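hey team, just a heads up i'm posting the complex here instead of the shared drive bc the drive is being weird again. everything in one block, sequence lines first with there labels, then the predicted structure for the whole assembly after. its two chains so it's a bit long, scroll down
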Amino acid sequence: MNTAGYVSWFLALLLSPLLLGIINRTKAFFAGRRGAPLVQAYFDCWKLLQKGAVYSRTTTWVFVCGPVAGLAAVSAAAGLVPLGGIGAPVSFAGDLILFAYLLGLMRFLTVVAALDTGSSFEGMGASREVFFSALAEPALLLGLAVLARETKSLSLSGMIFALTGEVWTRSGIILLLLAVALFIVLLAENARIPVDDPNTHLELTMIHEVMVLDHSGPDFAFILYGAALKLWVLSALLVGVVVPVRTGNPWLDGAAVLVGIMAVAVLVGIVESCMARLRLVRVPQLLVGAGAFSTLALMLALR
Amino acid sequence: MNVLLMAIATMFLGGLAALGARRPRMATRLGSGGVILGSLIGLVPAIRVLASGSAEAVSYAWSVPYGSFAVGMDPLSAFFLLPVLGISALAALYGTEYLTPYYGKYSVRGHWFFYSLLVASMSMVLVARNAVLFLVAWELMSVASFFLVTFEHHKESVRDAGWTYLVATHVGAAFLLAFFVLLGNEVGSFDFDRICAFGVPTSAGVLFLLSVVGFGAKAGFLPLHVWLPEAHPAAPSHVSALMSGVMIKTGIYGILRALTFLGPPSPWWGYLLVAIGLTSGIMGVLFALAQHDLKRLLAYHSVENIGIIALGLGVGVIGVGIGSPALIVLGFCGGLLHVLNHAIFKSLLFLGAGSVFHAAGTREIDLLGGLMKRMPWTGVTFLIGAAAICGLPPLNGFVSEFLIYLGAFRGGAVNDAAVVGTLSAVIAGLALIGGLAAACFAKAFGIIFLGEPRSDLSRTHEVGWAMRLPMGVLAAGCVLIGLLAPLALRLMSPVVAQLAPLARNVVRAELMTAAQPLAVVARGACGLLAMIGAFALLRLRLLARRTIGEGVTWDCGYAQPSPRMQYTASSFAQPLTDFFRIFLWTERRISRPSGLFPRSAALHTSTPDTYREKLYAPVFRGVVWGLSRLRWLQHGRVQLYMLYIAVALMALIVWKLGGMP
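-- predicted structure starts here --
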């Protein structure tokens, strides 16, 4: 247990909806629009929390369980990710496995909740979600294994704390490959272009959004907030790898990571502005590509 | 020790009484009662041995050549006895209700006799300390389960499945016979004590291979798994639970027991186990994804989970090779704990599948749907089992996979490319298996229990207490082992100490180190549950005094949704089965819509077992062809048969006399 680490957890819980705003602002900038306020996601959540809800007669308690337990799972996962020098509140040998599986739990619950509606669209989204995540999972865990080997640590906090500039000069190429793999996983897991389009209103082309079509009111607020939190934790992990600022002052290091996370959001916005969604049959190739980057990093680490 | 023999005798006597009973109801009471009573008696010495970490043994004279009635119980036997006895009792209770529709149609008396014989012989396999006794018990186990599989023998498919099982189990037994004969010849005794004390046999590598093939056929290692997807769906559901949850584990027990005979393992044994684990795990889950029959799907998941167990054992053996206590303890402990966990959640899932079949009359996933409302108890317990088998926290499947992962991560720091490469393959493989298993169980649970019924299921109702209680107990087991994992580890320390070439205090120290993260995980699991509760309360508070509407599922403006428009199991799995089609060879039969106003269109997919079709079918066709060449020897003329016998006897006499000085 690390009391100071709770700061990083609270920052995640507090600031994660901001990332959605930054991404949308970036996209608006590229499209020549002014765009919604940065804090739009907070407004959306607040408004949804005030509303009643509509449930399909087909659904059971599993449908309600999806957003509630899913949000709990991702909040728990956020408690394992450090913010640079500010460690995570909970860290132990092997917490990275728990981290990956908590995200898996959230996904499983979302998928089952989607199937509970009996809608063909939601079934379609659920089917694609499990397909892509099954391919993203090995890339993520293999990448973390390489990281564990490079830093000789088995916990996320320990690994990221040990990733100094010195490690980058020693094995920069390995870390670079890892960062690419992690970024692809981040895009896929958060349903971002080029894997999925979060903004489209054509149900056939969506993955994550189509799975939550039937949710409304507070349930939907939980989903929106959970998605933002998931984006935050994966970004924090990525930034922990690529921003090796370790001055020894946790607040300074934490600030560097915060700036980095915002930069990741901008980067996601840029990718979304410059790219089209891939055809669905191409997405697996991208994800296998991420796995290949992780494997390559491993082979280089084994030299 | 005598208590356990008494328990085995109780089961056997119960079975005999069931065979003699006049009415099926009486037979059920006697048979299941004998098994339940015997199991409860047998659990006492098993728990005592595990708690104290000591071993017990007795030996009686036996008139069988080379044999002695030597039985004993050490922590390894006791650990495997726990699931064997526990699941047997629960499945027997379940069977009392499950079998009622079969009264009068099939022989319930025979069923209970063979059921108790199976449980008794499995227990005997685990405590036998002599190769002859072991093989006799092993054969009894195979034959008893054969008769259980062929319970509905009026159906041709069931007879086929039984036949496949019989062939596969005897091919395996042939390798075991070779294993024990070679080993016994070298040692000069068939008693396990003497074999253990002998030291390192010269042909340890060959012996290890023989044991992997022989025991692997029972465990379901790929490509020896072909009998599993045939036999498990054919058997009554509580028998499937017993066979899949427990009986295949005797194969794992056998491999572990063989490891104690063969001295320090060579490094390649570990690599072989990892390779077997990866192929069984990944191919098992892929085949499972492509199935439409619920029990067939579950049977393939047994192949997958046996793969995970093999991965754990492989990590442990690699650890012995490089002399790393952490790897040894984490690998063996993870693999063994997964044995127990798989017994619990796989039995739970098979019992759930049986309840669905009992109530709805079909195992075809695409005909089901919306059962959560009609069978809430089965639904909840099935969901717990499904989440547990996917390795999701905070349930028991996560704990054992966590240990194997941790072992693989720990070993990543070694300076040996082969070891690190293999262990990284373990990590990537486990991740892929986990992802695919989640896909498969989202499909199985989602299509069967959620959505709208895809056929007329209006008369479907929840099953009775005798079927619900075992499912509830097993689901509670999934949750409890997940939350109390550090305690479970403490229980396992004598078992691991027996397998690992380490001092007992080293094992205990390593287990303590391994238990530390698990303690955090367990606390985290409680935190997770608390957060779920908090968010659920928050939601209730928010929704209080607000309007909560009800309507049809939003189908994007389409006004008349019908249950037939839902995603089915086949369509759900289609992207994955297409992506992995080079392994699966899914067959499709399409009748395309044609004409201006097409009336009908249909798509059928089926995924037969590639190994059965492409590997074994040609071999067995060849055998049949070769044997049919010898048909002329068998023509029905009795006097010629007498001549064969006379000639054979003459030849034997001449040979024997010729050998004399």
